[in-house]
Fold this sequence. Notes:
Elements: E1 4-8, E2 10-12, E3 15-16, H1 18-27, E4 32-36, H2 50-59, E5 65-68, H3 74-84, E6 88-90, H4 101-109, H5 120-138, H6 140-155, H7 162-168, H8 174-182
Parallel strand pairs: 1-4, 4-5, 5-6
Antiparallel strand pairs: 2-3
Bound molecules: flavin mononucleotide.
Amino acid sequence: MPVTAKFRLGVDDDHLTFLETGRIAADLGCAAIALHARTAEQLYSGTARWAAIGELKAAVPTVPVLGNGDIWDADDALAMAAATGCDGVVVGRGCLGRPWLFGDLANAFAGRTVAEPPTLGAVCDTMIEHLDLLCAWAGEHLGVREFRKHAGWYLKGYPVGGEIRRELNQLTSREALAERLAQFDRAAVMLPNGRRAKRGHQNGPRKVALPEHWFERVDDDTALDAAAESATSGG
Ligand SMILES: Cc1cc2nc3c(=O)[nH]c(=O)nc-3n(C[C@H](O)[C@H](O)[C@H](O)COP(=O)(O)O)c2cc1C
């Protein structure tokens, strides 16, 4: 069973541990390592520091290095690979409301043409399919409520007014979604700034809570007790 590891740059700018973490993971036999090029303190703020992915690739040549952070479309992935020499990419928020991103990435890395973003009509069809799958998984009551945030992500970057977005945010049935989507202009295309429209978490920076004296004993491998798992322990 191949095991991979994913980690951040470190706790904060004064404690950057990604090179050491990468070497340890490779030495322990990880099949690949992935770096989210932000610190824990950064959380989702600022931009991912792709240069660090290149540093990791140079420092750990024995296993594939996957880069992560701020890949919103296929061009971003190609740019990251070119800038860092990474062996592959990990997608986070970029696929929210854009499930076709994975197909775009496969095409981009295979040197094939990447399609233009779908028309609003094609997005609507995908939304219905997604909602149906979600309802089959979680039941209609939960599925519809869970889908509200996805509706916002799907429509981000398309010419759909704020009032409609608010309405979809209170969606209570599949029928209501289908009715609303049927009123959209199916030929509408994504707005120029839609490709990198931010979706999902934007929060941070945030001070990182660590167990008391943690920095003084980073090499201490005594197993943590159950209290370390409590929500308030920071550990
Ligand atoms: C819906 C969602 C779920 C995620 N779940 C995990 C997870 O289980 N483990 C993890 O290490 N990171 C998780 N992440 C973080 C991403 O893997 C990624 O590191 C982060 O979003 C930064 O990449 P981005 O700038 O492309 O979004 C998740 C992100 C999203 C949007």
